[in-house]
């Protein structure tokens, strides 16, 4: 197949997907192929090929896990340090994730990327605050998973129609 023929095929696939109003990963491939943490992404997305649905499922799972982490951080936040930082950052992250869900419904890929980037920053800050924690610290490990999930959400959002 010539390079030009391949390009025409990809363009036709993208046009078909955009005209149907349903964003699919190019060629119907696994949307998690764009993520850095593919195994984690696939465990959340569970074979979903629709990009918008895969992104929404990922955001909802991240929100669920963030709420649990916030509950866990609540008991230690008064002692200060990393848990206090994480506890407050989780509120901001949850706000941005809720906005991101609304952005998907509005097909606003630009705002979606902004809100997911903001939530990723909140998780990064929490990760940094927990960096000095004992390697066996369960909470520190969970902050890393939340960071990876947020990174996956942002990667998936790049496939959402702008």
Topology:
Elements lengths: L2 H18 L17 H8 L5 H24 L6 H25 L3 H21 L8 H20 L5
Helix pairs in contact: 3-4, 3-6, 4-5, 5-6
Characterization of this structure:
The protein is globular and about 50 Å long. It has helices at 3-20, 38-45, 51-74, 81-105, 109-129, 138-157. It has a single domain (30-157), classed as Butyryl-CoA Dehydrogenase, subunit A, domain 3 (Up-down Bundle), CATH 1.20.140.40. Helices cover 72% and strands 0% of the residues. The model is unreliable at 1-24 (pLDDT under 50).
Task: Looking at this protein, list some descriptive labels.
single chain, 162 residues, mainly alpha, Butyryl-CoA Dehydrogenase, subunit A, domain 3, globular, Pectinesterase inhibitor domain-containing protein, Pectinesterase_inhib_dom
**Care to count the β-strands?**
0
Please name the CATH topology: Butyryl-CoA Dehydrogenase, subunit A, domain 3
Pairing-aware structural class of the strands and helices? mainly alpha
Superfamily (CATH H level) name: Invertase/pectin methylesterase inhibitor family protein
* Overall pLDDT score: 81
First and last CA, distance: 30 Å
CATH class: Mainly Alpha
Q: In brief, what are we looking at here?
A:
The chain has six helices and no strands. With 162 residues, the chain is mainly alpha-helical. The longest helix has 25 residues, at 81-105.
